[in-house]
Here is the input.
Amino acid sequence: MFKSFFPNPKIFFISVLIFAGLTCAVWYGYNEQMADFFGLDITDSEPVIGLKHFVTDSFLLFYCYYFICTVIFAFVWFKASPHKWQWWSIIGSSTILFSTYFSVQVSVAINNWRRPFFDLIQSLLKPIGNNTATETINAQTANSASEQLFGLLIVFGEIAFLAIFIYVVTRFLVSHFIFRWRTAMNEYYTQYWLKLRNVEGASQRIQEDTMRFASIMESLGVALVEAVMTLFAFLPVLWSLSEYVSELPIIGKIAHPLFYASLFWSIFGTGLLALIGIKLPGLEFNNQKVEAAFRKELVYGEDDANRADPITLNELFLNVRKNYFRLYFHYMYFNVARMLYLQADNIFVFILLVPTIVIGAITFGILQQILTAFGQVSNSFQYLVNSWTTIVELLSVRKRLTAFESTLDDNINHTN
Here is the structure.
C-alpha cells in the first residue's frame, strides 16, 4: 500500500513526524524573532474581520515559513531516495495540508465575524412586551444600523465565497492525489501478477480493495487532516474565550474552564467508544473473508460444473449469515452508546455556560463564538467517534492488502 507511493514508508513517516515536531517547535518558539528580522508585526491584537484576516503579518510570515520547510524536506528526500511518485507523495501531501489549514482558517475568520454581527443584532432587538419596543428610532440611527448590518453581511459573503473556492480546490487536489496513490498500488501489484495470481481473491484485491482503500482514504484522510488543523486553529481561540467564563457547574472556578472541559469531554467520548467498539475491526475483517470464500466458490462454479453445488454454497452462506448477525449485534450496542454520547454533546456546552449566562457575563456575539469554537474543538477530538464505522472498514481493507503484500514478500524472498 504505502511502499508503492511513498519512498521507504517507515523511515519516511518517522521523518515526517520528527520534522513536523521540529518545525512546530521552531515556529512557536521563535516566530516573534523571525518577524522582527523581517520587520513584521505579529503581536496579539483584536481579530481582523474579513478577508484582511488572511494577509496579516502573522499569516504572511507563516506562508513563507511553510514554503521554506516544504522545500527543505522535499529536497532531502528527492536526493536521498528518488521515487517515481515523489512529487505527488511529498509535494502533493504538503499542498493538501496547506490547503486544508487555510480552509480551517476560513472557519476562524467566520468565527471572528460572529461577535460584531450578533452583538449588533442583540443591541437592535428589543424584548417583547417592553414599552420601549413601541418607540420609534430616528431615521439616522436606523440608516446607520442598516449600513452596519449590510456591511457585515457583505463581509460574510466574501469569506463564504473564499470558503467555497478553497473547498473545491482542496477536494480536487485530494481526488487526484488519491487516484495517483491507487495507480501506484495497481502498478506495483500488477508488476508481480504472475506471483500473485494464485493467491485467494488476487483479482479482487488488486481491483476492488485498492479502489476501496483509495476511496476511504479520500474521505477519512481529509477528515483526519481537518481535525488536526482545526485543533491547531481553534484551541487558542477557545483558550482566549475562556476568560469570559468564570466558573463551571459543580466544579466551580478554574482557569480556562472551556479549554479543559472540551479536552475532558472529547477524550472521554473517544476513549469510551473506542473501548466499546474494540471488536468491530476483527469482525469486519472476518466478514471480508467469508464473503470472499462464498464469492470464490461461485466464480469456480461458472467454469466447473462440479463446483458451487447447493450444499457447499449453503454452508458458505451460513458462515456469511453468522458473521453478519454477530456484526449487527455488536454494532447495535455500539450505536446506542454513540448516539447517547452525541445527543449529550448537543447540550454539554450549554450546561457549562449556565452560571455565566444567568449573570449576564457575556454578550450574544461572544456566546456564538464560544458555541462555534467549542463545537469545532469537540468535533476534532471526536474524530474517532464520528468516523469509527469508516475506520473499521479501512482497517479490514488494510488487513487484506497487508496479507496480500506479505504473500508477495514471501514469494520474492523465496525466489531470491
Residues 135 and 345 are 41 Å apart (CA to CA). The chain has a mean pLDDT of 82.
